[in-house]
Amino acid sequence: MFEMDSIMTLSGVTLYTCLFVLPFVQEDAAVIVAATASLADAAPIVYLFAAILAGLTASDVWKYWIGHFARRNAFAHKFAEKPGVSVAGDLVRNELAKTLFAARFVPGTRIPTYLACGFFQIPYLKFVGVVILTAFTYVAVSFALFHTIGAVAGEQAKYWLPGVAVALVAGYGLLRWLRHRRNKLGPMTPMTEEFDHPLPGMPGFEGTPLEGERIGNREW
Fold first, then answer.
1. Non-local CB neighbours of 133 within 8 Å, separated by 6+ positions
2. Which of 10, 36, 113, 150 has its CA 20 to 30 A from that of 127?
3. Low-confidence spans in the chain with pLDDT less than 70
4. Cβ(199)–Cβ(79) under 8 Å?
């Protein structure tokens, strides 16, 4: 996937379509492909940037609705009982931008965080706006790093740099997975069971370990 010869054979709509679709498979890998293509001058950098940004946004914003509809079916019980979910709710309600930025740059935390945004009813347009901002920042930083390293390392960087980037992302993801397994962490570090608390006002949660109380007339 990261062979530059293969990337260079793509052009125009085909290349942009691939960059749009790849985030639905693996977001970090898709950004690496886009940054590599920009480093190799496979297409105008503005178009490459726009294609990967659109793909990241589209692949993220729909996950909100999984969490949203989970409140109304049996899956909600299983979701709410997982360690750290109540803490994720606190973070996205009280520190939405900071939490989404952290999730953007920490592999393995995006899906739980986006689900939590829907589950805890963060305003959708606000969620989408912050997601776009975090995606823009991530792509900009990635492109800047690739071009900076490429300027220093020379022409050969476009061949080995993608492999190094993939290895770093995969290694960090494996480290997080091992730590999760060993310490029984929740969906986002440092969420652990000791910080869990009742979920107030959630309809349909009677009798669950995280059963909460209704606060006034408002449901959380």
1. 97
2. 36
3. 1-11, 73-85, 150-220
4. no
